[in-house]
């Protein structure tokens, strides 16, 4: 594997306050917009990875809830709405 042919490389300078500007191409790839949070995590091999925290949170939530609708017996959006209405207004809503 030739890392140079598969990776985007760019440099940023760390300020005295520990701040770094994420290069525009990396922001574009991650879908990071002003005000977004970014997530840094270390893989088992020691590599540090940056990700869009919003996207990572959504992916984590999707994984956590995978199969939940089937377990509950929901088959459509109407089932979800019905459950919400029951919770808000009681069983006889």
Sketch the major β-sheet: 2 strands, antiparallel
> What is the rounded distance between the termini?
61 Å
Instruction: Quote the average pLDDT.
Output: 84
Gyration radius, rounded:
21 Å
Query: What share of residues is helical?
Result: 40-55%
As an assembly, this protein is: single chain
Characterise the protein shown here.
The chain is mostly helical and 93 residues long. Helix content is 45%, strand content 11%. It is built from five helices and two strands. The chain has helices at residues 3-6, 24-30, 53-65, 68-72, 77-89; strands spanning 38-42, 48-52. The protein has a two-stranded antiparallel sheet. Strand 1 (38-42) and strand 2 form a beta hairpin. The longest helix is centred in the middle third of the chain and has 13 residues, at 53-65. The protein is elongated. The N and C termini lie far apart (61 Å). 0% of the residues are buried.
Task: Please supply descriptive tags for the structure shown above.
93 residues, mainly alpha, two-stranded antiparallel sheet, 2 strands
Short summary of the structure?
The protein has helices at about 5, 25-30, 55-65, 70, 75-90, and strands at about 40, 50. By secondary structure, it is mainly α. It has a two-stranded antiparallel ribbon with strand order 1-2.
Write the layout of secondary structure elements.
Layout: H1 3-6, H2 24-30, E1 38-42, E2 48-52, H3 53-65, H4 68-72, H5 77-89
Antiparallel strand pairs: 1-2
């Amino acid at each position: 594997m030739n890392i140079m042919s598969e990776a985007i490389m760019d440099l940023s300078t760390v300020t005295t306050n520990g701040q770094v500007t994420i290069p525009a191409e990396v922001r574009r790839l991650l879908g990071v917009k002003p005000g977004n949070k970014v997530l840094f995590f270390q893989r088992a091999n020691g590599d540090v990875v940056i990700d869009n925290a919003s996207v990572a949170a959504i992916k984590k939530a999707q994984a956590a809830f995978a199969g939940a609708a089937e377990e509950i017996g929901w088959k459509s959006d109407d089932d979800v709405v019905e459950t919400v209405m029951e919770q808000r207004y009681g069983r006889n809503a």
